[in-house]
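[agent] plan:
  1. take the single chain provided in the ticket
  2. run structure prediction with default settings
  3. attach structure tokens to the ticket
  4. add a short note for the reviewer (M.T.)
[agent] executing step 1
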Amino acid sequence: RSPAAGRTATAGAGHIGEYEVCSFVGAGEATFLGSESANPSVGKAGRLERVEEFRLEMVCSRFALPLAIETLRQFHPYEEPAFDIYELAPKPNRATGTGRRLVLDQPATMPEIGAKLRSHIGVSRLKYAMPEGMDEDTPLHKIGVVPGSGGDIVDDAVKGGCQLFITGEMTHHNVLAATARGMAILLAGHTNTERGYLPRLAKRLGGQMDGVEFRISRADRDPLVVMR
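[agent] step 2 finished; step 3 output follows
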């Protein structure tokens, strides 16, 4: 095997948590045909070669990637080392994300859920829409929740099997699209669904910024009022 693996690790590749020089190696057959001007390490120029090679896989941070590539080219025995760079998806974390998917232990109806939501966020009115085949007596137990404006997350909620999607506001057409796919919508107002997080945010910021006091505004309210 090539010393490029160890050298690339020294350049910053292959680091996972508390472990270094992490790699995976798989054997296989490779083919190449060098031009008359090529100077292959194995075989001859102008002839199709079949050789046993090892595929080396290592993770690498964006910061270390330029040096890792430079090191690979420098220490790999081939004149033109072949390599691919794949961007990895971030590690999933249930504690983070735009919204939440809830599964109730005891199913509840739209009026029951609405009453609890009004009491929790301190509002007197909610808006809702129901798909065909669902009514106010339908038991609901899979619920998607997104504060603010959750229209962009409707597709994820539907794919997640949510029967009800609770958010602050959505456009007319997003509501129609959601109900057409069998999911009910419950809207409580943009800022109404975000305001409850402010005390937690103030506490977190206060813990990170010494000497700064954070106070929650008492004037914050929904800018839209109902005309009677």
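[agent] step 4 note for reviewer: Residues 4-75 form a domain with the Alpha-Beta Plaits fold (CATH 3.30.70.120).
[agent] ticket updated
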